[in-house]
């Protein structure tokens, strides 16, 4: 079976968040069961691109309305990732350091999708399944199905995995002419609320839809995301599959980025050493509990609540807070301002820092994940693996992976995304901290849970087989 994954990110090539971790790991673990798995992403100006070897396997000119962009398909030649990696190089649109947040993102990702299909349709050996991830590849199912130019690909089944339904790739019909020619009777398939909506088009045209956790699938059918009624109608072809974690990258026992490696058996001493190192870096007291937050600083992550939580608790409790993230400028500023008052037991790192993230998972006692929306969440799974106790809001994938310790579980849970609820949960953690035996039991329970891709990638393979059988039957 030949599977082609397409998306905007792939760790370690280009990463913003969990999407990269999934596209960088799932294919590697599928490789054990499928002989041909490859990944296609745009070619950004990243360290990985500059430091590795690539061969040009195809070149052409893509047409985006009346614009023409030369492009190349570059194949990574040393196979260090455990799967074939192809980068679509469109210099005018992607030769930039960041993945997202440019004002021509619509043009960028549409061009990426067109170039990829132009290339695939020319290939001698076609994939058996195209696996798209998020709205950046959301128009692939439509174009493949309805553009005569891609007629040869028409019968290849497509899966869309939704990592975050908040982002939908919406643009006006003024840009319809960007798409390759198709019969306008199909135009409704692109439309949602009078706009072209890439994610909605994918949901309508893909053979199967997956979300990155079962609870998130239930939530997007009811929550106010603009697509809930569409999700309900398409429920018959939807499945929630919980993400896994890559133990080649996220294993406290062999992680080269942390200060001291540790297993379940040595977790007490191991975590202590990592905590001391981390506290030394940021002038914190390692005898006090250390709470961290790692992630994008946006309301969806509940990050807007952090400044109030931190300032109210630091005034009454002797605890440490360490924040790593970037995003909303207002939240960043509020968090930075807190440094003026609290410089001993609080630190914030604004920015993206992979190594510090690993050190923080290893050295913290608790991780805060107060998300309003969390389609899966990888942070809590990494934290469990590193013996750091997650404090989560019960939503999406957090609900599927974390159970409160009072119900014999592996973490601390709260229901509301509010300052009070988070402070209460932290207070329960502070109380717990003084009972080393209970803390150890919870920690060990978490470290023992197997969230590895090794274990969960099989669910996707079963889905692929099912889709192929269905196609043959039709
Ligand atoms: P999302 O994809 O919504 O951002 P996930 O929990 O699925 O959230 O994945 C987040 C990933 O990004 C994890 O690997 C986490 O460690 C990483 N991450 C988030 N913010 C940062 C940061 N500022 N520096 C380093 N890694 C980060």
Descriptive labels:
474 residues; alpha/beta; Rossmann fold; 2 domains; nine-stranded mixed sheet; six-stranded parallel sheet; 17 helices; 37% helix; globular; binds adenosine-5'-diphosphate
Q: Would you mind describing this structure in some detail?
A:
37% of the residues lie in helices and 20% in strands. By secondary structure, it is an alpha/beta fold. The chain folds into 2 domains: 2-244 and 454-473, Glycogen Phosphorylase B (Rossmann fold), CATH 3.40.50; 267-450, Glycogen Phosphorylase B (Rossmann fold, 3-Layer(aba) Sandwich). The mean pLDDT is 96.
Q: What quaternary form is this?
A: single chain
Termini separation comes to: 19 Å
> Can you give the helix content as a percent range?
25-40%
The number of helical elements comes to 17
Unreliably modeled segments: none
Strand content: 15-25%
CATH superfamily of the largest domain: Glycogen Phosphorylase B
CATH class wording of the largest domain: Alpha Beta
Major β-sheet profile? 9 strands, mixed
Q: What is the average per-residue confidence, as pLDDT, rounded to a whole number? A: 96
Number of strands: 18
The number of domains: 2
CATH topology heading of the largest domain: Rossmann fold
């Amino acid at each position: 079976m030949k599977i082609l994954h397409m998306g905007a990110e792939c760790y370690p090539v280009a990463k913003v968040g969990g999407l990269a971790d999934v596209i960088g790991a799932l294919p590697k673990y599928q490789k054990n069961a499928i002989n041909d798995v490859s990944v296609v992403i745009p070619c950004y100006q990243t360290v990985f691109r500059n430091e590795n070897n690539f061969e040009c396997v195809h070149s052409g000119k893509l047409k985006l309305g009346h614009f023409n962009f030369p492009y190349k398909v570059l194949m990574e030649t040393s196979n260090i990732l455990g799967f074939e990696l192809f980068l679509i190089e469109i210099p005018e649109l992607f030769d930039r350091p960041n993945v997202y947040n440019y004002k021509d993102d619509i043009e960028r990702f549409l061009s990426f999708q067109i170039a990829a299909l132009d290339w695939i349709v020319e290939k001698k050996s076609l994939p058996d399944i195209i696996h798209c991830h998020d709205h950046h590849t959301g128009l692939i199912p439509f174009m493949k199905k309805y553009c005569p130019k891609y007629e040869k690909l028409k019968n290849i089944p497509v899966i869309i995995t939704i990592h975050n339904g908040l982002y939908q790739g919406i643009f006006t019909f003024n840009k319809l002419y960007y798409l390759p020619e198709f019969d306008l009777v199909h135009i409704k398939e692109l439309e949602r609320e009078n706009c072209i909506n890439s994610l909605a088009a994918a949901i309508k045209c893909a053979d199967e839809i997956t979300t990155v956790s079962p609870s998130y699938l239930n939530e997007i059918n009811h929550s106010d995301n603009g697509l809930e009624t569409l999700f309900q109608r398409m429920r018959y072809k939807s499945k929630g599959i919980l993400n896994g974690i890559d133990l080649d990258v996220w294993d406290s026992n062999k992680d080269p980025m942390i200060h001291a490696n540790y297993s379940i058996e040595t977790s007490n001493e191991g975590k202590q050493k990592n905590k001391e190192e981390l506290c030394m870096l940021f002038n914190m007291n390692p005898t006090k509990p250390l709470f961290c937050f790692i992630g994008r600083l946006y309301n969806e992550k509940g990050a807007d609540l952090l400044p109030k939580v931190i300032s109210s608790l630091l005034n009454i409790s002797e605890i440490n807070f360490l924040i790593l993230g970037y995003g909303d400028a207002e939240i960043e500023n509020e968090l930075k301002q807190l440094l003026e008052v609290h410089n001993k037991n609080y630190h914030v790192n604004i920015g993206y820092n992979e190594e510090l993230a690993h050190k923080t998972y290893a050295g913290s006692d608790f991780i805060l994940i107060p998300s309003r929306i969390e389609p899966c969440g990888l942070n809590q799974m990494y934290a469990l693996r590193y013996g750091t106790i997650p404090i989560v809001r019960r939503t999406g994938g957090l609900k599927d992976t974390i159970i409160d310790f009072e119900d014999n579980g592996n973490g601390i849970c709260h229901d509301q995304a509010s300052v009070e609820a988070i402070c209460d949960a932290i207070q329960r953690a502070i109380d717990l901290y003084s009972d080393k035996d209970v803390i150890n039991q919870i920690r060990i329970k978490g470290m023992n849970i197997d969230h590895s891709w090794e274990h969960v990638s099989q669910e996707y393979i079963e889905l692929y087989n099912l889709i192929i059988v269905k196609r043959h039957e039709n």
